[in-house]
Amino acid sequence: MFxxxxxMSMAVLCLVxxxxxxxxxxxxxxxxxxxxxxxxxxxxxxxxxxxTEMKEVVTKKTxxxxxYEMKIKAGGMDMPAQPVTIKLDQKYDxxxxxKGATVKEVSKGEETLTVxxxxxxxxxxxxxxxxxxxxxxxxxxxxxxxAPDAVPLGGMVKMENDMGGVGxxxxxxxxxxxxx
Length: 180
Fold this sequence. Notes:
The chain has one helix spanning 2-19; strands at residues 35-45, 48-61, 65-74, 77-78, 82-87, 102-115, 118-133, 136-146, 156-162, 167-178. By secondary structure, it is mainly β. A hairpin with a 2-residue loop joins β3 and β4.
């Protein structure tokens, strides 16, 4: 059960984070091999609290694709690394993470946040996402802060997500850079 909820929450987090982009250009076009981001998240589902760490590292880039490896550590366990490939010659589809999900923008603004002792100018957006969980619709409400010019791999800096009574998650950028 915990793994199912974790998998769903990670899918929602990725979906919501990427849906925050209003850019016409694919945000992954700027990625370089070695770019990385590291996040921490705190979640509460059905009264159970958990902390998760996630690191994404670009492992390959061609003219038409970027591949990054996603490593997740949850409940003290390292999950198997997952490769993710993004097509660069197509408009980025933030709903690729969950077929049938719908995302609606509620409001937006700007705010400066601190990451690793550095001030980062961000744009934020509040979103409402509807997706299927089993046989019912789950409506989640999220606020996502991004800085795609400063932070690689889409630029997410922070995200707060309330999955409509199923659980809540806060995800924050811990650090970022390029290992090359």
